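chain below, 409 aa
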Amino acid sequence: MPRAVYVLAVGIFAMVTSEFVVAGLMPQMAAGLNSTVPQIGYLITAFAVAMAVGGPFLTIALMKLRPKQALLILFAVFLVGNALAATAGSYGVMLTARIITGIASQAFFGIAISVCSSITRAEIRGRAIGVVMNGLMLGTLLGLPMATFIGGNLGWRAAFWAISALTVIAAAATFLGIPPLDRPGSAASTFREEIQVFRRPRLWLVLTTSTLIIGATFSAFSYFNPILTEVSGFSEQSVPALLIAYGAATVIGNTVVGRLADRWTVAVQATGLALNIAFLTLFALLAHVGATAALLMMGIGLVGVTMNPAMATRVQRTGNPGPLVNTVHSSFITLGIIIGSSAGGFFVDTFGLRSPLWLGAALAVLGLLSLLPELRRAPGTPPTADNHPPSTSPRTDTHPPTPAKTGRS
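prediction:
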């Protein structure tokens, strides 16, 4: 595995830590910015919307640059956003800072996954993406508690300064550890090559599957805290330890999926969705049994967001490994987070605390149904073909395959 893959994971870790930091510091930030806790909660929504909407446009703007240059510029923009957050004197400034960091974060995800694909052999891309996405899992497991601890002891502004320092470290590692990659052709021709793949209806179905997978997980994850305390009977003090256990499960699951994603891309997603349906349904039925609820929550951690390597591999095979496709895919993932958390909130208000778990199970069923066209294929079909075999990134390969050899329709 190239060393650069691990360097990209460090960048993802910094981005995810910044994304989640607000969730752990809501009361302190509300007091410091003369706002309410619900208003601070809107900063999380603003970050997610900025990622989903703004990320692809920033990626398009950076397509004329070499990938390494683009990553370093994104680190600079991200650093500005976090420094602005650390010095924000009003809610409006903080909102602006979160929008800036959200847009930069999404573009970074897309370009980083594209770089990962371009520096690894096609047969191990899923495994390499799994390594990069461990930055996301570790951001949940370690980054959020670290930022919350710093903010709780040194003030919420110190948490953003710590993330700024982490951003500088990740940028330095990228400068030293990522090889220079060429961008062949003009920016206009590259843009046309990447945008054409969005004419394929199958790509939109694949993107929708990713949205449903993540939506199913986040409809539950967003409300773990109240479910565990008000239904399962756990104390507030025990919830952080349970969430750390959940985070550890995501790291394990992501590693396993990363190793299987290249050969069994669709089968891994189908298995993950089927298991998630079972875990979410049982959690909804048995949420009042504390020990069982904790085990089922960790089960969701094993098979939920951990589908990322298989999802990214499938999207690249259907479209291409370019940065625009990967960024749009990240936007669909973010859309799943928005749908899951917002719809889950509506269900809680209307039907009670168990209802987000039922919602998650329903979304997972829809995700499984979206895989049926590929699951119906003959068992002998090589999983690596996936109808559209792994394409070569137009950004980095010297000799891309001819259209006749790609197997694309």
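The chain has a mean pLDDT of 85. The first helix runs from residue 3 to 24.
thats it, cya
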